[in-house]
Amino acid sequence: MSKKTFTASLTMKELKKNSLTSFLVALIVVLSSATVHAFEVTDTIILDKFGGYYGVAYDSAKGEIFLTNGDFDLVYVISGSTHSVVATIPVGHTPSGIAYDSAKGELFVTNFGSDSVSVISDSNYTVVGTIPVGRQPMGIAYDSGKEEIFVTNYGSDSVSVISDSNYSVVATIPVGSRPCALAYDSAKGEMFVGHAGCNQVLAISDSTHAVVANITVENQPISLAYDSGKGEIFVTNFGSDSVSVISDIDYTVVATIPVGSQPTGIACDSVNGQIFVANFNSNSVSVISDSNNTVTANVPLEGQPQGICYDSGKGEIFVTYSESNRVSVIPASLPLPSPPIPEYPSFIVASFLMVTLFLTAILYRGKHQIETRMRQQ
Question: Which of 74, 158, 245, 278 has the most crowded CB, counting CB atoms within 10 A?
């Protein structure tokens, strides 16, 4: 055999060996990928007061999370970078919902027991205004298109519209029984309203302040989130253990997704196409893929979750509890594959790799023996 031929033979053997190595590496990656994308609580923030944490909102300008404490008439401010409390702000009686106004750098808080809305500056954490609204204000959302704040008055069966320029109520809209939640659809310029007293979701035009659609969902729709990536509204149905998906094109329910028991808060991660749902009676968070409207994961929690929000700056979910002094943090930046790959125990993976190596060794040994006999002949 010439030197040139010998070199070529070595190259072929190296290629075969590299092919085997590549195969085994790829196999390990596939089998281990099921655990890489698992959602779990990675941090727990301990607060100084126990109980009553209902509303939660993300301030994108400051990278901070604001949450209401209804039992002690306070708003807590948590740093998204350090997960520590940076301020505590006294507000009205029994604060419930909270929304961030990106144009003014302010937080608007509904005071359920004071029939008012408190306005907080995020620059110095002080209350800069108090606005009288209807009875028992609960849900609240910011309309970036009109720079207005919409408030559901649970006890007045109405929605108040507040101008953020002068903190005055510019409209009061009659709606159905016990309105409790809101979500703003920036693409359509519409506000969607959920009702705890019925199975209806209303769509309100922000240009005319008139109801433009009435959508039937399942029982007790108490929380809503807008998915800008799909142009859809996701609604938690507290009394039906489900989430309804509404298309903003024709106001039809395009999917109903079973989740945990008594879903309460909901948050949308439009970047990764994920919806996070707090299941109050299941002590868990359901993760929904907006591409196929299926639950891809369930995250266990130590307690009954109430509020939930998405920190787009850090790619994290913050979960509050009604009867606790904790806030759970769940990374949301790595979505689960769809459908999810089942998790294999490590001993099964190791056994499979050992069998694969054993069979490969036998095949190569047999091939080597055949080639040797052929050369001898």
Answer: 278
